Amino acid sequence: MTTGNLRRQLGIWPTTAMVISGMIAVGIFLVPAWMAKSLGSPLLLLVIWLAMAGMALCGSLCFGELASRYPHAGGGYVYLREAYGTPTAFMYGWMSLMVLDPGITATLATGLASYAGHIYPMDTVAMKLLAIAVLAVLTAVNIYGVRIGAWIIVLLTVFKVGVLAVISLLGFGLGLGDWSNFTPFVARPADSGPLFGALAGGIVGAFFAFAGWWDLNKVAGEIKDPARTLPRALLLAVGIVALTYITTSAVFMYLVPVSQVTSDETFAAQAGEVLFGRSGGILFSSVVILSIVGSLTGLLLMAPRVYFAMARDGVFLRFAGAVHPAFGTPYRAIAIQGGLASLLVWLGTFSQILDYFIFVAVLFIALTVAGLFVVRRRSAETPPYRTPFYPFTPVLFLILAAVLLVLLFGNSPVQALLGVGVTVLGIPVYFLVFRNQTSQQRPSGEAHGMD
After folding, report:
1. Distance between terminal CA atoms of the chain?
2. Which residues of the chain are under the pLDDT cut of 70?
3. What is the DSSP letter of 179?
4. What are the C-alpha distances in Å from 143 to residues 90, 224, 335?
5. Are 31 and 205 within 8 A, CB to CB?
6. Given 27, 38, 101, 389, which residue has the most CB atoms within 10 angstroms?
7. What is the torsion angle, in degrees rounded to the nearest 10, for the CA atoms of residue 398, residue 399, residue 401 and residue 404?
8. Structural domain boundaries in the chain
9. What span, in angstroms and rounded, lies between the C-alpha atoms of 395 and 213?
10. Mutual orientation of helices 124-144 and 331-347 as an angle, nearest 10°?
11. Distances (CA, A) of 202 to 30, 39, 197, 208, 257
């Protein structure tokens, strides 16, 4: 088994594209429609987008310092280990491995197949096989080499950001909408649902539309000069995505009145119909498919680095810590995620399972940001990059995360508790199986990708 080092091959543009691609998946093609329908107020929609953009920005600034201190493969797993110890980090990895990462990957792959079914009608089995085939190809691409997968992400990111920009320019430029759709700007319609539920749904939707900014840190061991590149890439990506989301939501409301949004209509379908007529459905289905391919490539590239780091610490199956002798990639860890995601695609039950882990995923991200206070107190070392406006930046993130957690628990308490329960099951697994296994090498050395 080869246990060499990961190669530092990624510069500023591939790393920035990975973050953008991870965030701009299918969310922006689905979220604005039901957010507008649920909230019923352009002002509330704008406030939620800005709040979640601010949360992503604060979080990325904090993760940037953590990456600067620990520029190794593994991301949140490494930061939690350094702040709170291996058991807490193991539970994060357990949660990521068992449901979150393969579940999100499987969800995207199934979404891709569903959109493909709009272009070429096929039955359920055929769509599942197509989704699994796409996962197999992209898994192989990421095993073959980081640079290939990264530049696929770059090209598709430029494409989908460009498409969204064209939608905005055409939507406003051709004058096909109505500015009166933004009125009343503040008040909600009389027939709107409860405000608490609307805010909960809107904030959760916007949060996961931005989800993915934390994944870039998982490949820190393969980024050139990560102390400088990671913070710059995170800031640039979050800014681009925030501007894209706010502009896209605005053009959506300009083209389609909130009163005409129905539960089964998506932004892509409605905007495409307004702009291009009947062919809009096929055109936008193709755009969504390419967008998902980019996001899947990024997920299969970044998420397996957590299992790789865990294996190198001796708290996961050791064979997952192998680096391919020719390609320099953690090929077995990548194959694990591709395989688990394919299994979930075939079983077809993952979409409901994912709902149970939203709460615990946010909890671990907040715990990671809070770890910045711990590592600063323990270490007098000054890293190459420090979070600006500290401690205001992490405090603001944690306040927003607390609001999100309250809304999640208040809206879906059973799912939240189940997610916590499944994660806690990782505790006996750790103490019974992995506690006495020694780490091959700690993160300050080469085992996590230092050149």
Report:
1. 20
2. 1-10, 22, 25-26, 30, 33-34, 73-74, 145-147, 149-150, 184-193, 215-222, 227, 258-275, 278, 281, 348-356, 436-451
3. G
4. 24, 19, 8
5. yes
6. 101
7. 170
8. 12-435
9. 18
10. 170
11. 12, 7, 8, 10, 18
pLDDT value for 442: 47
Task: Retrieve residue 25's tokens.
Answer: 């998946």
At CA 26, angle to CA 152 and CA 32, rounded to 5?
Answer: 140
Q: Token digits for 361?
A: 């995923």
CATH number for the domain formed by residue range(s) 12-435: 1.20.1740.10
The amino acid at residue 162 is: G
CA gap 175, 172 in Å, rounded: 5
Q: Each residue of 112-135: pLDDT tens digit?
A: 887 788 778 888 899 899 999 999
Predicted confidence (pLDDT) per residue in 20-75, tens digit: 876 776 677 767 766 777 787 788 888 888 888 889 889 988 988 888 788 776 67
Which of 212, 271, 209, 157 lies closest to 27 in space, CA to CA?
Answer: 209
Which tens digits make up the pLDDT trace of 145-162?
A: 666 766 777 777 777 777
Sign of CA dihedral 82, 427, 108, 29: negative
- Compute the Cα dihedral for 134, 136, 137, 141 and give only its sign: positive
